[in-house]
């Protein structure tokens, strides 16, 4: 085997992509349920939509859909229809799995600190799986992947900056102790991405 052949990225099969999207969204859904049970605030587009819901009274899903529209346009133009369709599928699956998981999993006791770390780790791992199969969860995820591909800005660091800005805006929405834990969770999510999702480190392509 030549050096050129050995270094050539191995393309994911359609089956591998499908399995990865299902597993990644299941990780995300469990992370969301843990956050919900502990009354923690997520970052990214979901966190922004939640804050706008508190301020305006408009339903969360209408806001979530509207905020994502310009990012889907970016996804189509810069990342292609295949990426965009996978992202639509992932967003739908997270919605479905979150509802199912909340009915299948219950907690008699959930320490908020553990919830912040474990919920963040699960969400970060879910995003990592999706990113490595050229799939996002709309909104900031799309922009993060584009900026990493185009300018080499690490997706995890960019998302961390955005998440911290959203969480800072929540200072009047949730108790300060839960806000601090939400910041910790955002750090765990995005450090998971920053450490493991670097250009050139993972060669699998979709």
TrEMBL record:
Topology of this chain in the membrane: Multi-pass membrane protein
Presence of keyword Transmembrane helix: yes
Pfam families: YitT_membrane
Chain segments annotated as transmembrane: 18-40, 46-67, 79-100, 112-131, 151-173, 179-196
Annotated localization: Cell membrane
UniProtKB keywords: Cell membrane, Membrane, Transmembrane, Transmembrane helix
Name of the protein: Membrane protein
Organism for this UniProt entry: Shinella yambaruensis
């Amino acid at each position: 085997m030549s050096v050129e052949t050995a270094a050539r990225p191995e393309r994911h099969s359609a089956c591998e992509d499908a399995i990865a999207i299902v597993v990644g969204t299941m990780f995300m859904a469990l992370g969301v349920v843990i956050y919900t049970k502990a009354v923690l605030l997520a970052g990214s587009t979901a966190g922004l939509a939640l804050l706008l819901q508190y301020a305006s009274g408009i339903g969360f899903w209408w806001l979530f859909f509207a905020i994502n529209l310009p990012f889907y346009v970016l996804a189509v133009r810069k990342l292609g229809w295949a990426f965009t369709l996978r992202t639509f599928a992932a967003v739908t699956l997270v919605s479905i799995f979150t509802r199912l998981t909340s009915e299948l999993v219950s907690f008699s006791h959930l320490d908020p600190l553990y919830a912040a770390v474990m919920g963040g780790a699960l969400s970060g791992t879910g995003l990592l799986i999706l990113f490595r199969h050229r799939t996002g969860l709309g909104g900031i995820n799309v922009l993060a992947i584009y900026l990493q591909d185009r300018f080499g800005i690490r997706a995890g660091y960019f998302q961390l900056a955005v998440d911290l800005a959203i969480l800072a805006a929540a200072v009047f929405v949730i108790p300060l102790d839960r806000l601090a834990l939400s910041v910790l969770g955002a750090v765990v999510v995005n450090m998971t991405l920053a450490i493991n999702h670097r250009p050139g480190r993972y060669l699998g392509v979709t």
